């Protein structure tokens, strides 16, 4: 893939090619742990990918391997800068801004595919869970650490995880803080496919290309439909937003707008009350 760099960031890389955006954590020396700055950069890149109507699929991954040869998707929040009330950036303000990124990945109307090589741990694990699809390298390692390091994700990190792997397995993952290999993850439905590490990106690009051949509106409606029940009112808002989009695009919807602008009464009588 001939990737074009969109912008040079400090903590992430951001590239595009042929309808696909590739966004990657780039702190391999700390197993791609994230700090507030990392998440602000991720949020900017994801927002750009969302707004670019030539981009249909985003690949989320981690740069690597590190100098010691190990790979990581992400090891979660950077524990070295965790303060008393969140992760503290250069401005001295404590934050848990990864929650904003979780919501953006979940609600953007384009599939996000996690490509996991090496560790997906803690908040890094939650991010792959939130992605629409996950392709794992054969060296991938999955797990939560919250109860071991004094934290927990009671949002998507637990409820959505449980809807993927089941209540019993999700409780095991969080209560015992074990690590699971790629084969175990595939068996519990946590990942879609396992491939050799040197084929991970090619596999992700292939999946993205297959999605790009499909109908953008069908895919966006399906994503919001899959999200709707777990996301409550926000999920219904997304689904309803797509219904509004389709209505805007119809002749019937446009009759209302045209009549207003032409200062006449709308003529909706020509449209049927379908059964
Ligand atoms: C990933 C692990 C298992 C890899 O082990 P390995 O290969 O033995 O490497 P290490 O020698 O441990 O690490 C290499 C260097 O990288 C540093 N490093 C690794 N992970 C982190 C990290 N998360 N923060 C800071 N530094 C990290 C190591 O310190 C080492 O550097 P040196 O040699 O200089 O010390 C292993 O590294 C590991 O277990 N890492 C920690 C995993 C972890 O506990 N992560 C934090 C979990 N919590 C969150 O992510 C919270 C954020 C969150 O998403 C959230 C969201 C919503 C609501 C709540 C939360 C929440 O949980 O608070």
Automatic annotation (TrEMBL):
Its UniProt pathway annotation is: Quinol/quinone metabolism; 1,4-dihydroxy-2-naphthoate biosynthesis; 1,4-dihydroxy-2-naphthoate from chorismate: step 6/7; Quinol/quinone metabolism; menaquinone biosynthesis
Cofactors that this protein relies on: hydrogencarbonate
Listed EC numbers: 4.1.3.36
Source domain of life: Bacteria
Q: Please name the top-level EC class of this enzyme.
A: lyase
Q: Which reaction does it catalyse?
A: 2-succinylbenzoyl-CoA + H(+) = 1,4-dihydroxy-2-naphthoyl-CoA + H2O
Q: Which GO terms describe its biological process?
A: menaquinone biosynthetic process
Q: Which residues are involved in binding hydrogencarbonate?
A: 144-146
Q: Name one Pfam family in it.
A: ECH_1
Q: Name one GO molecular function term.
A: 1,4-dihydroxy-2-naphthoyl-CoA synthase activity
Is Lyase found in the keyword set? yes
| Annotated positions for site Important for catalysis | 87, 248
**Record key words, sorted:** Lyase, Menaquinone biosynthesis
| The keyword Lyase appears for this protein | yes
**Which positions bind substrate?**
31, 75-79, 87, 119-123, 145, 151, 248, 263
Q: Cellular component per GO?
A: cytosol
Family named by the database record:
Belongs to the enoyl-CoA hydratase/isomerase family. MenB subfamily.
Briefly, what is this protein's role? Converts o-succinylbenzoyl-CoA (OSB-CoA) to 1,4-dihydroxy-2-naphthoyl-CoA (DHNA-CoA).
Return the protein name: 1,4-dihydroxy-2-naphthoyl-CoA synthase
Per the UniProt record, the source organism is Natronogracilivirga saccharolytica
Q: What is the lineage of its organism?
A: Bacteria, Pseudomonadati, Balneolota, Balneolia, Balneolales
